[in-house]
Amino acid sequence: MKEKIISVGIDIGTSTTQLVFSGIVIENTATSFSIPRIKIVEKEVFYKSKIYFTPLITERIIDGKKIKEIVEGEYKNSGVQLEVVKTGAVIITGETARKENAQEVLKSLSDLAGEFVVATAGPDLEAIIAGRGAGADKISKDENKLIVNIDIGGGTSNIVVFQDGEVIDTGCMDIGGRLIQIDKESMKVRYISDKVKRLTKSLGIHIEKGKLVSFDTLRKIAEAMADVLAQAIGIQERNANYNMMITNKGIKEGYDFDGVTFSGGVADCIYKEDIQELLKYGDIGILLGEALRKHLKFRRLNIIKPKETIRATVVGAGSHTTDISGSTITYTKDIFPIKNIPILKLSINDEKSGKIGIESAIRQKLKWFHLEEESQSVAVAFKGPKNPSFKEIQELASAITCGCEELIASKEPLMIIVERDIGKVLGQAIHKQLDFKKDIISIDSIKVENGDYVDIGKPLANGKVVPVVIKTLVFNS
């Protein structure tokens, strides 16, 4: 039986805030003799809000009161009544992705988004969310191509590499459309970031807040930014400017990309060639888009327009899919229910890379969930081997315990989700290797993906199974 629900997505970024309302049709696709499996079978975005500049109290702290005013106003404009919205997601990205901001948003939107997924995304996770939202992963999978997506916002450019639809690398650069802001009437500089100021000095350009700047100078700076992004994806030789503009890390060199997609606010300025007012937004964003569109190295690479650009980060919101774990599970303490745990999913290639490869993959992907000096609770997920031997289970347990040192050091339980039915024996092996000193939750028969969040409910059937709610961000792909 089909059911139509209304979903709202709220994207709060460094520069902009926006809402999207979607109609989602869900259906139980399992047979009458099987455990229910609810899936999205149709989706239609029926309302997109105007794009607001994110209201901030300081450069890093969101003004929760004004965010609530924006959300309430857009509910009214859309004609959607609060009580008919069944699900949703609040995605907090860029400089606004801080723990105190997530709490502030939750507090201010508690009566509007009490059951929503609230995801604070650091630069790596933001790159993945944006790439999937743009549809770059689908292009990569459907056309069997190596695709790089560059999501260029106000403050950063988040980079993700997809191979056959799976994430294989991420990076981030301090390149964005609002890192230089100009008064359009006087041509005086209203703001320039420290890193961009250093970039201009390398070009022999002296630029200061409050001083006049010429149009030609701004264009040269935009071209230098485009050069840095070309270096970031390895299509131009890297130099000191590239090293200076890295946010947290870059992607590896040596990729032979089949194409590049752009998303984020600047992307529209890359795909549109007839923009008349180049300082329309009082920043360098349109000029940066123009520089990228004309850049010879990018033109040779094959620029592909994705399904979404400025609204790529999230165009829908959480579809709650209920499932039941397998009966071969392990949990050392009943601390359920647990809510809103993000998924770290290993790829098939990660799983095939052996003990050292699995350890390295977990360590690298844990960085996706870092917010400044903080980290989040994370569930490590993978398909798992078919009919593994005792030795294979022990080696897999060892790889997980070594790769998950950061999670093991935290106060939270170590959470493992396996698609195949090895949760119990794997959980017991991990627990033993940790001298029974760490709480473990190891469940199986659950399929999740990167970008999903899970709730795990109180155990059922005398503790043999647990209900799992998979919250999938609904992307426009």
From TrEMBL:
InterPro entries: EutA, FtsA/MreB. This is Ethanolamine ammonia-lyase reactivating factor EutA. The gene is eutA. It comes from Crassaminicella indica. Signal peptide: none annotated.
